[in-house]
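Good morning C.,

I know you're traveling, so I'll keep this short. The sequence:
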Amino acid sequence: MRLLLGFLMLFWISPAAAVLPSSKITEDTETTSSILQPHKALYDINLVATRSGSQIVNIKGQMFYEWKQTCEGYITDHRFKLKYEYTDSPATQITSDFSTYERLDGSEFNFSSRRKRNQDIYEEYRGIAALDDQNIQATYTIPEEESFEFSADSYFPMGHTVEMLRQAMMGNKFFNAVVFDGSDDEGPIEINTFIGEAVNPMALIEPSKKLDMELLNNKAWKVQMAVFPIFDKAETSDYEMKMVFHENGVISDMFIDYDDFSVTQKLVALEAITGENPKSCQKQSSLSKITN
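The tokens, ready to paste straight into the viewer:
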């Protein structure tokens, strides 16, 4: 189970600009991705429900999320710090660091994930994925010899986010896709997305000095996602998410429902990041061609 990696992706669901197979990159996609805003955000995570038989008494912590742009790609960073309390065992501190780099043309995706339990590493994954005409697979360096193949119409997390936004802007309600995010060793996943009604986010968010309200004062939708494993076919999803998804890529509220418990991720701090300007990158590329 991809425990509390609520952005996946996505977040993952990671929000960022277009990282798609070259055959998918269109002027329409590039226009959509230009709307998104590099940013860093802090979320409070809290347990809100448990099911019968669950040994969990409480979950509490925070997630830091950041994505920024360079002239060649997009960089994301997720950091979780969570405390789990149980009915019949000592509390456990879980920390998780997950970073990715995606080339602008969608040809390459680098990922690194490490999780600790009470300061001891218990999971670590690192590798590179390719999604082009010659190579469509993910190869791990940690653990060694682990690899996955996936179809050419799959997405990396940021490309998935851009396509979800494009679908929302066109007024489409349903979007299904296969996504590889590198957060674990379970391979690609299927995400079934329902894009609900547009909402006024300013009516849902309490103003705070720690929140850049300009990043929140824009169009947003209620979105639901169900996540299914690809290689372990099941009738029910691994987990489901509900969120308020903004057209600039910010997620201001999230509810994650697992088999035996549910948690919320509430936005408590948000600010924009000034990355490399795409126009300046284009100028550099043009100058390079002239001088060469």
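Safe travels,
E.
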